[in-house]
Structures are given as structure tokens and as C-alpha cells.
Input
Amino acid sequence: MERKLMGVPFTPRANIIMTICLGTIACVVTSGCLLWFAWPYSDYERHVGWTVEQPVPFSHQHHVAGLGLDCRFCHSSVERSAQASLPPTFTCMTCHSQIWTNAAVLAAVRDSLLRNTPMTWQRVTNVPDYVYFNHSIHVVKGVGCESCHGNIAAMPLTYKAKTLTMQFCVNCHRDPGPNLRPAENIFDTDWHRGPDTPGPAALMALYHLGRRNLTECSICHR
Output
């Protein structure tokens, strides 16, 4: 009695389909892992380039590049304090009590003065609570505002220009020379090195930045 042959459950095409499916699964898993590791380091996650909604759409481009206001007119404590400080309302009203006095966009400023309550500005750049950053020591040692904040004088609305990660800071501390500039150019956010600008080594000597601090930084952050 002859046995009847059973039908083949899989066709030769099944091998190809299975290979494609397994390859797709492997690609999805690998891509997911890479995204999971890389996402926290992306500029998108760190909000680099994002403007922050403020109670008043203050334009550095208009006030600094256009009108020529010095950074220290508003950030008055940046040379002597850990905080750069934000201007009190009466600093804004020094000018706006005479110009744009009825502008709707400045209603929040006038209301702040009337109620004697400070403006609630939203932070654009931030560091973790365990990080201590002192503006004054960086400024008096030749680090310009642009090194951390970008060319803020060209920003119609303020945004975070640099990542400000620990690696960002460590790279500068290991080799600060390229980020140093003459004292008269500290607050010039559009400054560029010229042929007469002292070199990085000369600026480090001028600001008394020796090898000791660089060595300590390298040891702690290897």
C-alpha cells in the first residue's frame, strides 16, 4: 500500500520572507537602541536653538545691535557676582516711560511697575542644581559672553545657542586659550580675532591662567 506524500507546508519563498522579517526586526531593535543612547545628546533634546516664550518678546537684536546698549546696562552684576542678574522693571522704564509708552506689547512691563512686582522671565539656559557656575570669574578672566550664549546681539528672540553640557565646559577648561579675548572685547558678541589680537598663550598669561587648573580639571574629568 503506497503512502500518500503530505503537502510541503512552506514554499521556497518562505526562506526569503523569513530572512527579510528577521533582518527588519534586527534593524528596528538596533535603531531603537542607538536612538535611546543618542537622544539625550541631541540638540533637540537639549533645546538648542529653541526660543522661549517670555512675558514680553524682548529683542537683543533691537536693543544691543540696533540701539547699542551694553550688556551691563541690564545684566549689571555680571562682573562681580555669580549671577548675571536680570534688570528690574524700573531699568526698562528708564527708556519706556518716554518711548513706546502705550505700546500693547509692553503692557506687562507697565503692569509690573504699577503693581511693584518683578517680571517673571523664563530661563533660557540652565545647568543642573549640582553645578556651580560663576559669571564674574569667567568674565574677568577673559571669557566673552558669546562663548556660552552665542551671538546674542543678533537674536530677535533669545534662544539657547550652546549645549552647555559638562563636556562643553570641560573642553574649555582643558584648553581655555581659544575662548579668551582682550578685556575690551568681552561684551562684544560679534567679535572676531584679528591680526593684532594676542594669541591664546599670551592671553592665558595676561589673565594668569596657569597649568595647575588645567591639570586638576583633566584629573577630575577624565
